[in-house]
Design goal:
The complex is a heterodimer of chains A (96) and B (139). Chain A has 3 helices and no strands. Chain A has 96 residues and is mostly helical. The chains are: A mainly alpha (96), B mainly alpha (139).
C-alpha cells in the first residue's frame, strides 16, 4: 500500500518537474519548485514508514521542511530585486 | 523584504526552530542522522534566512566580521587541539581512547569535541561566504 503511495507521489513530482522546466513565467517555476519540496517531504515520510524506521526519516523530512522555505525565499528575492543583499528594490533615479 | 508582514513574521517564527534543530542535529549526531557539517550548514541556513529578510547589515550587527573570522579559526583550533591532546599523553594523533577514564567515554568525548569544532567552522564559513557575496554592493 505504501509502495503505491510512494509511486504516485513520484509521478506527481515528475509532473511538477515538467512544469518547472516548461513554465512560461518565473512564478510557475517557483510554484512548481515549492510543490516539489512539499511532495518530497511527504514522500520521505511515507518512505520512512514503508522501510519501518520512521524516526530516522522524520528527522530528514523535518529538516527538508525547514530548509525548503529558505530556497523559495531566496529565489523570489533574486527574481524581484536581482540581488540577495538588499532589503528593498532600487528606487528609480529622481527627476531633476 | 522587511516590509512584507508574512515573510517577516514567518522568519521570526522559523529561525529559532532552525537553530534548535541545528543543535539537535549537532548533539544527537552520534545516534541519528547528522553530525558537525550538517549542523553547521543548518545553523548557517537560519542566519542566511535572517539576512535575506532583514538585510546583510543585520547579520553584521548580530555577528561582526572579525568575530566570524575568529570563529572559523577557533573551530579548526578545537579540532586540532583535540587531535594533539592524545599525542601529548603518549597516544596516537586523534586517538580518543586517551581522553576518558575508559575507551568508551574517551571516544564519546573526543567525537563530541571534534564534531563541535567542525560545526563551528562550517557555520562561520557559510555565513562569511553569504555576507561576502550578498553584501558586496553596500560595503
Amino acid at each position: 500500500m505504501l509502495i503505491l503511495v510512494v509511486t504516485v507521489l513520484l509521478g506527481t513530482m515528475g509532473l511538477a518537474l515538467i512544469r518547472a522546466v516548461r513554465g512560461p513565467t518565473v512564478y510557475d517555476r517557483i510554484l512548481a519548485a515549492n510543490a516539489f519540496t512539499t511532495k518530497t517531504i511527504v514522500m520521505v515520510t511515507t518512505f520512512g514508514f514503508m522501510v519501518g524506521e520512521p524516526g530516522l526519516y522524520l528527522d530528514i523530512a523535518l529538516m527538508y521542511a525547514l530548509i525548503g522555505f529558505i530556497g523559495t525565499v531566496a529565489v523570489l528575492k533574486v527574481s524581484e530585486f536581482g540581488n540577495l543583499g538588499q532589503t528593498r528594490p532600487e528606487l528609480p533615479p529622481k527627476p531633476k | 523584504m522587511r516590509d512584507n508582514p508574512v515573510l517577516r513574521v514567518v522568519t521570526k517564527i522559523i529561525v529559532p526552530v532552525i537553530f534548535l534543530f541545528a543543535l539537535y542535529v549537532q548533539f544527537h549526531g552520534d545516534y541519528g542522522p547528522g553530525g558537525g557539517f550538517q549542523a553547521g550548514v543548518i545553523f548557517a541556513a537560519g542566519l542566511i534566512l535572517y539576512g535575506l529578510i532583514f538585510g546583510t547589515e543585520s547579520i553584521r550587527c548580530l555577528i561582526s566580521t572579525r568575530f566570524l573570522r575568529a570563529l572559523i579559526a577557533a573551530g579548526l583550533l578545537l579540532f586540532a587541539s583535540v587531535g594533539f591532546l592524545p599525542l601529548l599523553m603518549g597516544w596516537n594523533y586523534l586517538d580518543y581512547d586517551a581522553l576518558g577514564q575508559n575507551p568508551l567515554s574517551g571516544q564519546h568525548l573526543g567525537i563530541f569535541l571534534v564534531e563541535l569544532g567542525v560545526g563551528i567552522t562550517v557555520a562561520a564559513v557559510m555565513v562569511t561566504i553569504f555576507v561576502a557575496f550578498a553584501g558586496r554592493r553596500d560595503s
